[in-house]
Amino acid sequence: MNSKKKEIPTGSLIENYLPADYADTFSWIVICKQAITPDEFRVLAFGQVPKWIDWLMKLRNCIVQPLGLDTKSKFVDMIHAQNSDEVIFGMPDKHLSFYVSMWCGEYKDGRQELQITTVVKYNNWIGRVYFFIIKPFHSIIIRSILNNIKAPHGTLK
Q: What backbone phi and psi angles, to 5 degrees, belong to 31?
């Protein structure tokens, strides 16, 4: 089953970062023997990123560095908020600010829903142009990350 576009979960920490200029949520159902925590979800999602995404991020860094965008920091190292169900990573920059939620739904009957929500706020016209250029790649990358997850305690569905 492919990842699906969904609504932001009610009561999610990412709601604190709204309103935004752009927001999306993608979901994946995992069949596993025990619940996956937000920290495990982060490792599963970003510990095995496909090579083409690494290449694309390196290309992005070469292009945006002259514009003054941060190319050194990794957003998964920038935790803004966390609870037992979710972790929020973010990278506020002078051109745009973006926040990513990694939310783990309730574990029930050997299944758990995992969601990645992205929220983007434009801080100036450069941020708006930048996101316009990368937006077509964004959903492809997020879906690929979710579809690439290998459950540590079971299989994916």
A: -100, 120
The beta strand positions in 4-146, using DSSP E, are: 4-6, 22-32, 79-82, 86-92, 96-104, 111-122
Cα 73 to chain centroid, rounded: 15
Q: What are the beta bridge partners of residue 94?
A: none
Query: What residue type is 6 in one-letter code?
Result: K
pLDDT in tens, 81-119: 999 999 999 988 888 899 999 999 999 999 999 999 999
pLDDT at 35 over 50: yes
The pLDDT, as a whole number, for residue 93 is: 81
Quick check: 156 pLDDT over 50?
no
- The residues with which 9 forms a beta bridge, in sequence order, are none
Place of tokens 């069949």: 31
3-class state of residue 14 by DSSP: helix
| H helix runs in 10-70, sequence order | 38-46, 51-64
Q: Under a CB-based contact definition with an 8 Å cutoff, are residues 99 and 116 in contact? A: no
